[in-house]
Amino acid sequence: MSVPPPAAPAPLAGGPAGPAALRPLLDTVLTALTTGARDRSGPLPAGGPAHTAAQLHRAAHPLLPATGSGPHEALRALVHALAAGAADPAHPHCTAHLHCPPLAVAAAADLAASALNPSMDSWDQAPAASALEDALTRTLAAEIFPDAAHPDALITTGGTESNQLALLLAREKHAHHGPLQLVVGANAHHSLTRAAWLLGLPEPVVVPAPSGTLDPAALDQALTQLHRPTLVAATAGTTDTGQIDPLPDIADLCRHHRAGLHVDAAYGGPLLFSPTHRHLLTGLDRADTLTLDLHKLGWQPVAAGILAVPDTTALAPLAHQADYLNADDDTDAGLPDLLGRSLRTTRRPDALKIAVTLKALGRDGLADLVDRTLAAARHLADLIEKHPGLELHDRPTLTTVLFRPTRATDDDIAHLRRRLLQQGRAVLGRTRAAGRLWLKATLLNPHTTPDDLENLLDHVLSHYTPAHPERHTHR
């Protein structure tokens, strides 16, 4: 009696046979993405969290069967369910957060990164990928610090990791001179305060930002009163309003008071690619460390963060040795040492998608995307200003637009936002400014049209119902 040969193991994505194994699976994935988006039909699924979870559970169950369903059925079911239940940043009415629609070319590059699966913690796991990362980080660092002799940058998971690394580098620089004191504006990103806590630093000094940007006079007063090593964190693109701190004034104060300067340009940094708008970042190159996120106004799949420094020697505190990854004799023999390029050990080759995007689009293509997106935000502000039933908080600096129905209460705003989410009509954020709650549209889609923006406002007005109509008389 013959014994049937054992079934072949599931195919791999890499190796000579990998592309052939991937090709039919990709067709299944792309079909499922299409059918899922069609079933969703809007920027997010209607019905709210419970309905979405129930739909997903039906598609996923059983998630660990005794006998598998096979790759095509698993991909078809789960990719379709994920797409049908997605908040799709490519939809022009999905505007709540700094959550960008990724470029197709970047997503395609990310597939290659996943298939090859380099691990960026030793050269023998990522020979070409480590060389590409080195080229990319030095290119981006030179763009940020054009007059520096030896600028450098690290790839991170985003602004939170970059900000934490910036504080770590500043702490180590002043380790022999007492605890580092972080000084932030009231408009600063929450990750800075959290990083100070994680690193055991004193509670940050918070400087007022009455107009949405850090007040230089208040900063001067705070720095005058401090007598310890100090790091000032400025913001180029606040999360709530998209405003940019007065970077030249802050840099002058830091130099006068001998304080370090970190600039969180996670949001606004890509304006450097635009000749039309890069003047808004004047003074950025005076930072000691700088955060940049290309999964915001860089249209990259998450994650694509950068921490840049004007001199590569600033990264020396990150040096670390593990004999199985960067033995001294291997390093002396010329194998690149990658452990000092991150606090993480295993990490993806996120440099690939960024490098492909830069090469594919060039400066002109990137500038066009930035300019289109900022123009859309200005057009949305124009529409709001002209509409008697809407109120604009302020003209946008970047791509964030705050607005609200005229005379709405804060409760009205909160209920309206949730109603739009529940019905799957629009994904708008919320933020508090000037003592009131506002709807927040953060535009990151360069394909957004004027009609898309008019339809978005129509959704807002048609779903707006005052919670207490008696408070809205004489409108």
Automatic annotation (TrEMBL):
Names of required cofactors: pyridoxal 5'-phosphate
UniProt cross-references to InterPro entries, sorted A to Z: PyrdxlP-dep_de-COase, PyrdxlP-dep_Trfase, PyrdxlP-dep_Trfase_major, PyrdxlP-dep_Trfase_small
Keyword annotations from UniProtKB, A to Z: Decarboxylase, Lyase, Pyridoxal phosphate
Zinc recorded as keyword: no
Pfam families registered for this protein in UniProt: Pyridoxal_deC
Domain of life from the UniProt record: Bacteria
Keyword Lyase: yes
Similarity section: Belongs to the group II decarboxylase family.
Protein's name in the database: Pyridoxal phosphate-dependent decarboxylase family protein
Source organism phylogeny: Bacteria, Bacillati, Actinomycetota, Actinomycetes, Kitasatosporales
